[in-house]
Specification:
Elements: H1 9-17, H2 19-26, H3 31-57, H4 83-111, H5 117-142, H6 147-170, E1 179-180, H7 184-210, H8 227-254, H9 259-284, H10 289-311, E2 314-315, H11 326-335
Helix pairs in contact: 1-2, 2-4, 3-4, 3-6, 3-10, 4-5, 5-6, 6-7, 6-10, 7-8, 7-10, 8-9, 9-10
Length: 336
C-alpha cells in the first residue's frame, strides 16, 4: 500500500487559506468523475424544483411561517405544528443537499487537469444562484406566498437548471473555439424554439400563480387573471414549441445533419408529447395534485431538452490539440 503523507503545519495553513487549491494540488479526478459531479448538480436542481412543487401542491407553503427559522424561536418544526411544517422544512433541508452537489461539482472542476477556468466559473455561478434563490425563498414565506415572488422563485430555479445543464455539457467537450455543425438557418430555427420555450415556461408560472393551487390553505393572494384563459394561451405556446421541434427534426433529416442534433431533437419531441398528454389530462380533470407535480417535472425536462438541442449545434475540440490542416503541416515542417 502507498503510505498516506502526513499533514504538516504548512499544509494545514495552506488548506485553511485556499482549500480548493489545496485539494486540487493533491487530487486529479478522472474526466468521468467531473461529468458525474456536474450531472449530480443538474439532477438536484431538478429535484429541488419538484419538491418545491410538492410543498405548494400539499398546501404546505406556510408550514414554517417564518424564515430563516421554521417558527419563532425554533429552527425546526415543533410538535405544535402540523405535517405541513415537516414538508416545508424537508424542502428547506434539501437546499443543503443541493449545495453539497454544487460544491462537489466545483471541487471536481477545480481539481481537473489541465485546469479549466470556464468549468469552475459555471460551478460558482450555480452556488451563487442557490444562495440567491434561498434568500428569495425566505422572502416568499415572509410575504405570505405572494404569487409574483413565487413565480420569480421558480424562474430563478430555472436559471440554475440552465447553468447546471451548460456545465454538464461543457464537461464532455474541450475548450476550443466552437465549430458549428449546422447552417445559420437551422441555428435560427433552434433559437426561435428556445424563445418559444421561455415564453411557454413563463406562461406556466402565470397559470400557477392564478390557478387554484395557492400553496397554503389560508387566504393567499392570487394573480388577478382568469387562469383558464392563460392556460389556453399556455397550450397554444406548447403547440408552437411542438411544431417548431417537429420542423427542426424534419429540416435536420433533410440536410443530413450529424446524429447529435438529430437525436436530441427526437428526444425533445418525445418529452414534449408526454408533457402534452399530462397537460391536457390535468386540465380536463381539474388539476389533480399528482398530475400537476408530474407536469412540473416535465417542464424541467422540456427545458433541459431544449438546451441540449441548442448545445448540440456546435462542437468544441480540446484547445491544446492541433487539428490537422495546412497550419499544422507548416508547424511540423518548421520543427524538422
Amino acid at each position: 500500500m502507498v503510505p498516506v503523507p502526513k499533514l504538516t503545519r504548512a499544509d494545514a495553513v495552506a488548506a485553511l487559506r485556499n482549500p480548493l487549491a489545496f485539494i486540487a494540488a493533491r487530487w486529479t479526478p478522472e474526466p468521468r468523475t467531473v461529468q458525474r459531479a456536474a450531472l449530480a448538480a443538474l439532477v438536484m436542481s431538478v429535484v429541488i424544483v419538484v419538491t418545491g412543487g410538492a410543498v405548494r401542491l400539499t398546501g404546505s407553503g406556510l408550514g414554517c411561517p417564518t424564515w430563516p427559522e421554521c417558527t419563532d424561536g425554533s429552527l425546526t418544526p415543533t410538535t405544535a405544528l402540523s405535517y405541513h411544517s415537516a414538508i416545508e422544512f424537508g424542502n428547506r433541508m434539501l437546499t443543503y443537499v443541493l449545495c453539497a452537489a454544487v460544491g462537489w461539482a466545483i471541487i471536481a472542476a477545480r481539481s481537473e487537469k489541465p485546469y479549466r477556468r470556464s468549468l469552475t466559473r459555471l460551478g460558482w455561478a450555480q452556488f451563487w444562484l442557490v444562495m440567491s434563490n434561498a434568500v428569495l425563498g425566505g422572502i416568499v414565506v415572509l410575504v405570505g406566498l405572494n404569487p409574483y415572488t413565487v413565480a420569480a422563485h421558480f424562474l430563478l430555479a430555472t436559471v440554475l437548471m440552465t447553468v447546471a445543464a451548460v456545465m454538464w455539457q461543457r464537461t464532455r467537450e474541450g475548450d476550443g473555439a466552437p465549430r458549428p455543425l449546422v447552417g445559420k438557418a437551422v441555428q435560427q430555427l433552434v433559437w426561435f424554439l428556445a424563445v418559444a420555450s421561455v415564453l411557454l415556461i413563463a406562461a406556466g408560472t402565470v397559470v400557477t400563480g392564478a390557478g387554484p393551487h395557492a400553496g397554503d390553505s389560508s387566504d393567499v393572494k392570487r394573480i388577478p387573471i382568469d387562469w383558464e384563459t392563460v392556460a389556453k394561451l399556455h397550450a397554444v405556446l406548447a403547440w408552437i414549441v411542438v411544431t417548431l421541434t417537429f420542423a427542426l427534426w424534419f429540416v435536420l433529416k433533410a440536410v443530413d445533419a450529424p446524429k447529435g442534433p438529430l437525436h436530441r431533437t427526437r428526444d425533445l419531441f418525445l418529452v414534449l408529447l408526454g408533457q402534452g398528454v399530462i397537460g391536457y389530462v390535468q386540465y380536463f380533470t381539474h388539476l389533480p395534485e399528482l398530475l400537476v407535480g408530474l407536469h412540473m417535472l416535465g417542464s424541467c425536462l422540456v427545458w433541459i431538452g431544449v438546451l441540449r438541442v441548442l448545445l448540440a449545434l456546435r462542437e468544441r475540440a480540446d484547445a491544446a490539440v492541433d487539428l490537422p490542416g495546412p497550419a499544422a503541416e507548416v508547424t511540423v515542417g518548421t520543427r524538422a
